[in-house]
């Protein structure tokens, strides 16, 4: 599996940087005036491409992204740049992480304070079982729960402060808005309890063999799973693991 823990930083400078981001990402780039923003880039069909943190630092916006996605994202952003007065470059900055209140020079994770702080000044990271914390708070990760088949509302982006429904147009906005206002979520990520374990990506089935979802990150007898909520009402299995789920959307 791809190492999803490694992070890279893309620096975005130029007078059009906020306007440039505003037309592309799921969150409101104007919020950068007040602090960091969690957001994603979507396909025109509303499917997930990549998520990231946007962090204001003076006249620069730092884009903190999984290293496995950095080069492809830089190419995609460069394609969208056109005549915008924006400069994009892959930085040598490193990303540090830890729990508790953000120390001086660091930022609180904008998804939830339970995910700790992030810093970009070379300080050491704390040794933390991040998977355990992600499972406890149902926080998805690129390359695991977040895939090219993901719709961000099913992945909990509203709960995690990763989408703004008042900002106006961005790539994939129409599909996302329609899911928000015209449909009830019938599928999505949820925290489940389990006995045993199974590989990430194992299909979850009902007692009579119907597909009910997919099992993802596991820790301490709990896991993140993608579920069909109408089928997650009885005993479930994923390989050798027994699963109990409460069939409610985690939006």
From TrEMBL:
The keyword Transit peptide appears for this protein: yes
Pfam families per the UniProt record, alphabetical: Beta-barrel_CAF17_C
Domain CAF17 C-terminal, chain residue ranges per copy: 186-245
Keywords: Transit peptide
Domain of life (superkingdom): Bacteria
Cell division found in the keyword field: no
InterPro entries for the chain: CAF17_C, TrmE/GcvT-like, YgfZ/GCV_T_CS, YgfZ/GcvT
GO biological process: one example: iron-sulfur cluster assembly
SUPFAM superfamilies on file: Folate-binding domain
PANTHER family: TRANSFERASE CAF17, MITOCHONDRIAL-RELATED (PTHR22602)
Protein's recorded name: Folate-binding protein YgfZ
Source species of the chain: Celeribacter baekdonensis
């Amino acid at each position: 599996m791809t190492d999803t823990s490694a992070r890279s930083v893309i620096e975005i400078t130029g007078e059009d940087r906020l306007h440039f981001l505003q037309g592309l990402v799921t969150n409101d780039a104007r919020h950068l005036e007040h602090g960091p923003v969690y957001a994603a880039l979507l396909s025109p069909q509303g499917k997930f491409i990549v998520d990231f943190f946007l962090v204001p630092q003076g006249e620069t916006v730092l884009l903190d992204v999984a290293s496995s996605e950095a080069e492809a994202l830089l190419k995609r952003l460069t394609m969208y740049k056109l005549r915008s007065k924006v400069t994009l470059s892959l930085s040598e900055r490193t990303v540090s992480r830890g729990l508790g209140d953000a120390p001086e020079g660091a930022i609180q994770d904008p998804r939830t304070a339970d995910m700790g702080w992030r810093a970009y000044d070379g300080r050491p990271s704390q040794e933390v079982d991040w998977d355990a914390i992600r499972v406890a708070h149902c926080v998805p990760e690129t390359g695991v729960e977040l895939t090219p088949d993901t719709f961000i509302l099913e992945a909990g982006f509203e709960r995690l402060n990763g989408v703004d429904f008042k900002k106006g147009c961005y790539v994939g906005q129409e599909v996302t808005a329609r899911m928000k206002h015209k449909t009830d979520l019938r599928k999505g990520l949820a925290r489940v309890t389990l006995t045993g374990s199974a590989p990430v990506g194992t299909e979850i089935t009902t007692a009579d063999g119907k597909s009910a979802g997919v099992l993802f990150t596991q820790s301490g007898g709990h896991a993140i799973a993608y579920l069909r909520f109408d089928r997650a009402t009885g005993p479930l299995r994923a390989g050798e693991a027994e699963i109990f789920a409460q069939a409610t959307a985690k939006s």
